[in-house]
Amino acid sequence: xxxxxxxxxxxxxxxxxxxxxxxxxxxxxxxxxxxxxxxxxxxxxxxxxxxxxxxxxxxxxxxxxxxxxxxxxxxxxxxxxxxxxxxxxxxxxxxxxxxxxxxxxxxxx
Amino acid sequence: xxxxxxxxxxxxxxxxxxxxxxxxxxxxxxxxxxxxxxxxxxxxxxxxxxxxxxxxxxxxxxxxxxxxxxxxxxxxxxxxxxxxxxxxxxxxxxxxxxxxxxxxxxxxx
DNA sequence: ACCGGTAGATAGTAACACTGAATAGCCCGG
DNA sequence: CCGGGCTATTCAGTGTTACTATCTACCGGT
Lengths: 109, 109
Description:
With 109 residues, chain A is α+β, with helices and mostly antiparallel strands.
């Protein structure tokens, strides 16, 4: 899309993935598809997997390997308690930033 | 504040500074003060100067050195045409992301 | 002579998303 | 039976960004 959205996604993409996982557990390929459905059309697959590795290492998700009918086994990620806390914190931080930017957009001071 | 807001500011801080400059020309120290007034209490001065160097190199601002009554000379930045275009693009990108996140926050799919 | 407020610059670090490619399993058509 | 296409994951290398910490510089007051 452009370098602006790329930079904006830093700090939000992880939250977006957590929010998707909050709806229901999912595996990487599925999450990528979900992102495309939700308008994030050009987020590379590799990027999503990198996020998943990160949130797993942070202990925000539980992981379960599930055999697939078609293709290699899936790694199904589900949000755990720490992940839910992190997601709440994400929404708070987003709200903070969003509110201040809204002010700036409408007339500044 | 926390690492979350730090990461979210990547990609938005530059836009925020451009938005402040759109209100009226300003110099670094003044911009930092403006950020604090607007709730961005813990953005380091060094960070702001780095942004200013960047937007100057990108050619988004015009710069004028003005002697100060108190202290070393000020570098006054004013948004030029390219800067205004960039700012508009920033608001578009922000709107895009903001809208999608709003959807996710309210019920997801 | 010193300190606090004003004003700007910079080197080094860590986090993050992207690119591009590799690997691997499975199914179907020719 | 074999090669292309879909599913699914992984990884090395790159560039951008904000933060920390520190340094320089000018001025006024004590």
